[in-house]
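dumping this here before i forget
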Amino acid sequence: MQQLNKPTYSEQVVNLIRQRIRNGKLRSGDRISEASIAEECGISRAPVREALESLVQEGLVTSEPQKGKRVRLMSPEEIRNSYSVGGILEATGVADSLPAWSDAEVDELERVLKDMHKSNQSSGGQLGLTELDDIFHDRLLMHCHNPYLVDLARHSCSTISKYLMYRQWTAFYSFNELYERHVMLVEAMRSRDRMAVWKKIREHYEELGAYMAELMEKSDWTQE
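structure:
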């Protein structure tokens, strides 16, 4: 039997900080104290330092001389640009690989949506938007054989929607609204209309990016 490795201290700290960013305990621009986290977790500062460097590489944390580590603070323009890039990449990857999709695979994509919709209804709305969004968009790119494009598409704006502005992202659509938008995209794929698919994906990202950017413009999130 294969033995699974337990998460290292640094991995646990990464997950801790991610969770605090997602639930709003750490907000954009907030300073992250290496010493405070080490003391709180009862560990040395080395794994905390390693965790923070990992989050810097991930784009969730920034590091500046004299200012230390902070939760990333993005300008409205950066948010719009991130979503625009994400939309262009995904739209291109899906549209270019559309001929590889069989009718059965499109049917399966729709069935996944319907099963998740039923599960969400039966669970009283406990199924998260994140799960639906991740599964659906991962499947959309399953026939794209450019791993570099796939990686960039998946990470171009995930730090915003899945962490930095998670609560705002989940408030933008209800589960039913997100489901209906994805069903519309499946219908576009079923038509085999490459341009229709490309436009639908672009519109989805542009709309969400504009909403997030507008929220940031109205917010009082500022770095000290």
